[in-house]
Amino acid sequence: MWWLLVLLQAVVLPAQLCEVPEEVAAQACTMSARLLGLAEDPAWEANPSIYVALRLADDHDLAFEAQYLARLKDAFQGPHSTSPQAAGQPKRPLPQPHAAPHGRAPGAHGHHRSAVAAGKRGRPNTGRLALQLLALRAACQPLDAGAEGHLVTRLKYSLETDWTGSQRHGHPLTNYYQYSLGILALCVQRKQVREEVIRRLLAAEQQGRFSLGHGHAVGLAFACLDQAQLARGALALELQEAVRNVSRKLLQAQGHDGFFGNVFSTPLAMQLFIATNTCESELAYNRARAALLQSLDNFTNPMAISQLLPALYGRSYLDIASMHCQGERDTLQPIRPVTQPPGPGNITVRLVVECPKRLCHHHVPYNQSVSVPTGSSLLDVLEAASKQGRHAFMFKTQDSLYGPFLTTVMKVEAKWQERRYWQLLSAPDTRLQTGIADYKPHDGETLILRLSKW
Fold first, then answer.
1. Which of 411-416's residues contact partners 24+ apart within 8 Å by CB, and which partners?
2. Using an 8 Å Cβ cutoff, are 284 and 254 in contact?
3. Distance, CA of 402 to chain centre
4. DSSP state of 440
5. Are 14 and 314 in contact (CB under 8 A)?
6. Torsion-angle region of residue 449: left (phi > 0), alpha (psi -120 to 50) or beta?
7. Quick check: 27 and 330 in contact, CB under 8 A?
8. What is the mean pLDDT for each group of 10 consecutive residues in the chain (454 residues)?
9. DSSP bridge pairs for 422
10. Calpha distance 424→452 (Å, rounded)
11. DSSP E strand boundaries for 321-362
């Protein structure tokens, strides 16, 4: 019976909760309330990462969580839900840019936002399926019937399809973050993972094929497989060594500011310390947490908050395996966002596009001043530029659970397979920490869209 399996899982992998100081717990509760307020907005698509974060919190709104789970299940129903071949195709389009105020191109500083981008037709969406599977386990839901029962098969198929990209590009069709998250989700559900699937990731770690931003997800997958004892003999020893290697590289990569990569990649990196129960013995963990607490104003997007919350509570995705969904505090009250009215007058922003000559006729194919109302976002600037006379600016975005990120500028497309993306900068060379729909330019600022490699 499924309830007995849940009980056995709790015995196999007890929840590991790192000590959380009172002031951090208070901040975590506030961020939970903010996430709840954002999640109530129907303009945002149902997001399994949000649900997982709400479930890993100390305080809950159980009625809302039940409604949100129903939305998640509904979003995964449809003709594609019964066929593994369609695993990467969402039921309906994600919200349009004006409704999803976040996103940026993937790549810089190990960013992994592409992990939850809407899958193109024929492309696997391993990360999205993995998050859905984690969400169902966080709800203590059995996987023995209906569409939920097909998720495991779909995810296993997506992992195989995903890996076909490595034969041509040297990495999965999505990325190592998604591939690792898929393995982690199967492990948390206590589903057997083929040895070949694990060894692919072990080989990638040994050969240093992935970036820091993907390394923490890889480490979490290894740690789960090790702790759940889903591997035996030499493979088990290799997994233990891989966890140590990833942790060591993570420590070496911590910046002077305390972050692992940047402010948004740091929370997931911290989960590796939590999952391996080393958070109390590593000064790097405390430095990272202190840096995050000083940077909470950067977390305005629900997807970003959802990845922050588990770390603030001293939990990791591995803790989902031992959840029992009983005796939870039903006390959380939402903090709803307050919409700021636009300021008076307009601002003028200079928009510059930089592109290698081999891809563009000119190194700077666009360099124009753009006028927008005060309080406008970078996305508003791009839209205004696209309507501006003979110097027409052209761009496209792709939706993700983070919101829109820039994919095409002046007909030049960012290509994941070629590891190129449109980098967002404030002149002369300051990377933007938020996406095109969140960043608010100031009057006289010069914004640069630079086609870059990672």
1. 412/355, 412/359, 412/360, 412/451, 414/105, 414/451, 416/106, 416/114, 416/174, 416/175
2. yes
3. 8
4. -
5. no
6. beta
7. no
8. 39 57 96 97 90 98 97 73 38 30 34 42 76 96 75 93 76 88 96 93 90 85 94 92 94 94 92 92 92 94 94 97 95 90 87 90 91 94 90 87 87 82 93 87 97 84
9. 451
10. 10
11. 346-354
Other C-beta atoms closer than 10 Å to the C-beta of 257 total 13
Q: Could you write out the DSSP letters of every residue in 174-187? A: S-HHHHHHHHHHHH
Least Cα distance to 33 among 68, 57, 69 occurs for: 57
Angle at 34 between CA 31 and CA 36, to 5 degrees: 110
User: How big is the CA angle at 94 (ends 92 and 100), to the nearest 5 degrees?
Assistant: 155
How does strand 430-431 pair with strand 420-426?
antiparallel
Which residues have CB under 8 Å from 445's CB, separation 6+?
Answer: 349, 350, 426, 427
**Kind of pairing, strands 405-409 and 420-426?**
unpaired
User: Which DSSP symbol is given to 230?
Assistant: -
**Spatial distance between the Cα atoms of 100 and 171, rounded to a whole number of angstroms:** 29
**Are the C-beta atoms of 235 and 192 separated by less than 8 Å?**
no
Amino acid of residue 115: A
What single string gives the DSSP state of each residue in 123-189? S--HHHHHHHHHHHHHTT---SSHHHHHHHHHHHHHHHHHHTTHHHHSS-SS-HHHHHHHHHHHHHT
Cα 423–chain centre separation? 18
Q: Residue 90's closest CA among 59, 128, 60, 55?
A: 128
Q: What is the pTM of this model?
A: 0.83
Rounded-to-integer distance, Cα 385 and Cα 126, Å? 35
Contact 139, 68 (CB under 8 A): no
Question: Locate tokens 């839209």: which residue?
Answer: 383
Tokens of 258: 């305390």
Quote the Cα angle for 32-313-246, to 5°: 125
